[in-house]
Design a protein that fits this description.
The protein is built from 19 helices and 17 strands. With 595 residues, it is of the alpha+beta class. The strands form four sheets. Strands 2-1-5-4-3 form a five-stranded antiparallel beta sheet. The protein has a five-stranded antiparallel beta sheet with strand order 7-6-10-9-8. A five-stranded mixed beta sheet has the order 12-14-15-17-16, covered by helices on one side. The chain is rod-shaped, with a radius of gyration of 58 Å. It starts with a helix and ends in a 9-residue tail after the last strand. Mean pLDDT is 78; it is low at 536-550. Residues 319-371 form the HAMP domain.
Length: 595
């Protein structure tokens, strides 16, 4: 309920303006956000595509270098001089030395013509060593055959290493990428050799280091075993100050891989070469949109301009729509204040104009009906009050006369006089002079006469006390309101008791309201009977009212009919403990002419 009220406004102008504003703001924000996201996604997509093209070019170039090395290896593999030298029993003989010179000359020509090749070396199982350099520059045979490039070139497979420092020549430690392949002699068993071709690492370094992928983006290469071939921060990687998700890269195929790094997203574009290397381009989406700030400012600026214009239009439109409604509301407020002569002066042809015309017709009919109702209510009110007021229980009158006769027969003349006088005063008070209201003192005097008669009828059955504050004596109240309450206490509360009962009437002023309580210590009532005393639909002819004598319903109905629904009777009762009836009426200090 509170959430609903939060969105309710007292003014329809405000409601329409807020509704339009919320709709416009929501639409503007959604469109602006979608526009920015689509632009950003488009730029990101183009940048990722550009990255893929770059790493494809890098991969193609590297594959070309490796293919060239394989072509050279294949050419040398089919070289007859090398095969002849490999099968020689004594490679150091004069014939072997002439073959070495010829082969070395061929290797020197290849290396000198290719700046991407660092060195070419052939080592045979017969102890032969052939290089494009002088033999004195090479390390010893045992040192050469102990290196990885030699031991891993098995089963005629081509082994391509990651970037490493080569230890082939004395006092030279170049960074190279090595490709080694096993050669076999004509017998294919005993006579073998390994061909080594070193690719200059600077070729790959220059190729990859010049690629710019934003301020932080870069390219790196990893082989199929997870070793880094190239990385722009390779020294930092080796010191474990930085790491790359190698396992995720090896497990992933070609395409994009999105990862988190220090709460920043990065996109890895992966391309696998035909020999197993993976070339990875690393880009950061937050840097791909180079004019991100400009796009944001432009979106905010134009969104704000459109928003201000739309809000202005919504305010003007809401004012135009709500103006006739406010005018009709002002007319209704005058009707609330009792002015039924007002007319709504709205001539427009839409639904509001139709509503105004219906409002005018309604006022005419209401005014006619009010005149009729006022007249009928006045007649009904007067006749009903008089009818209720004049009711008297005939059984009470019969029983009282029988008691007087019985006392006369027993020569109790004093009691006869007292009871007859009290009954006479009661009858005269009931008939009255046509006045609806009497003073509180007169009502209490009538109540005392009634209690006198009843106490003489029910000898020693109950006692009573009347306590009324002096300031109430001059106040006005309806005639015969307390007698039915006391009668109800006697007949239904005390009469069937074995012990003697007590009735107490207390009158006092509470916050400007007359409050009179009638309490007894009789049998009391349960909750069901208590709730039915003033139940809806009960009237003076109902079973409950007949059972209650004149009935408390008559009293309650008369009070509300005369004084309004804010006044009337209330009950408190507990079985075997008694009942208390509280009567509340407004206080009127006008003096009442006593009878």
């Amino acid at each position: 309920m509170n959430k609903r009220r939060f969105f309710r406004f007292k003014s329809i102008h405000t409601s329409i303006a807020v509704a339009f504003s919320c709709l416009i703001i929501g639409t503007t924000l959604i469109l602006s956000y979608n526009t920015y996201r689509q632009s950003s996604d488009s730029v990101t997509e183009n940048s990722v595509q550009y990255t893929n093209e770059l790493i494809n070019q890098v991969g193609t170039t590297i594959e070309t270098y490796i293919d060239n090395m394989k072509s050279i290896s294949s050419l040398l593999y089919n070289n007859g001089q090398i095969r002849q030298y490999l099968t020689m029993t004594d490679p150091h003989s004069e014939v072997g030395q002439s073959l070495v010179n010829a082969i070395e000359s061929s290797l020197q020509v290849i290396v000198q013509s290719r700046n991407d090749i660092s060195a070419i070396l052939f080592i045979g199982s017969n102890g032969a060593v052939i290089s494009d350099r002088e033999q004195s520059a090479l390390k010893s045979y045992p040192e050469l055959i102990a290196q990885d490039w030699y031991t891993k070139a098995k089963n005629d497979a081509i082994y391509i290493s990651s970037s490493e420092v080569e230890h082939v020549y004395h006092n030279e430690y170049p960074w190279v990428i090595s490709m080694s392949q096993q050669f076999r002699g004509d017998d294919r068993i005993n006579k073998t050799g390994v061909l080594l071709i070193d690719l200059n690492y600077t070729i790959i370094n220059d190729l990859c280091s010049h690629i710019q992928l934003g301020k932080r983006g870069y390219v790196f290469i990893v082989n199929s075993e997870g070793d880094l071939v190239y990385h722009p921060q390779q020294q930092i990687i080796h010191t474990n100050l930085k790491s790359e998700p190698i396992e995720a890269i090896l497990a992933s195929g070609d395409g994009q891989l999105s990862l988190k790094e220090n709460d920043h997203e990065k996109i890895l574009s992966i391309r696998t070469t035909n020999f197993g290397w993976k070339i990875v381009g690393v880009t950061y989406p937050e840097e791909l949109v180079g004019n991100k700030k400009k796009m944001q400012l432009s979106t905010v600026l134009w969104g704000s301009v459109c928003l201000i214009i739309a809000l202005g239009i919504s305010i003007v439109l809401s004012f135009t729509l709500s103006r006739p409604i406010k005018k009709l509301e002002a007319n209704m407020k005058q009707v609330e204040q009792g002015n039924f002569d007002i007319r709504a002066d709205i001539t427009q042809a839409d639904e509001i104009g139709k509503l105004a015309r219906s409002f005018n017709v309604m006022l005419v009919k209401i005014k006619d009906l009010m005149k009729q109702i006022v007249h009928e209510e006045a007649l009904l009110r007067t006749s009903e009050i008089k009818a209720l007021q004049s009711q008297i229980n005939p059984h009470f009158l019969y029983n009282t006369l029988e008691s007087i006769i019985w006392m006369a027969e027993t020569n109790k003349m004093r009691e006869v006089v007292k009871m007859t006088m009290a009954l006479s005063k009661m009858l005269r008070y009931s008939i009255g002079k046509g006045e609806q209201e009497v003073s509180v003192s007169m009502e209490m005097e009538h109540l005392a006469n009634y209690l006198t008669v009843q106490s003489m009828r029910y000898t020693n059955k109950f006692s009573y006390a009347i306590e009324v504050e002096p300031e109430l004596q001059g106040c006005r109240m309806l005639r015969i309101m307390l007698q039915p309450l006391v009668e109800n206490a006697i007949y239904h509360g005390i009469r069937r008791m074995e012990e003697r009962g007590h009735i107490r009437i207390v009158g006092r002023m509470v916050d400007g309201v007359i409050q009179i309580t009638v309490s007894d210590n009789g049998l009391g009532m349960d909750k069901a009977k208590l709730q039915g005393l003033l139940g809806a639909g009960q009237g003076p002819d109902s079973e409950s009212s007949k059972d209650q004598g004149l009935g408390v319903w008559n009293v309650h109905h008369r009070i509300q009919l005369f004084y309004g629904t804010a006044y009337g009777l209330s009950f408190e009762s507990e079985p075997e403990e008694g009942t208390t009836v509280t009567l509340r009426i407004p206080c009127s200090e006008l003096e009442v002419k006593d009878e």
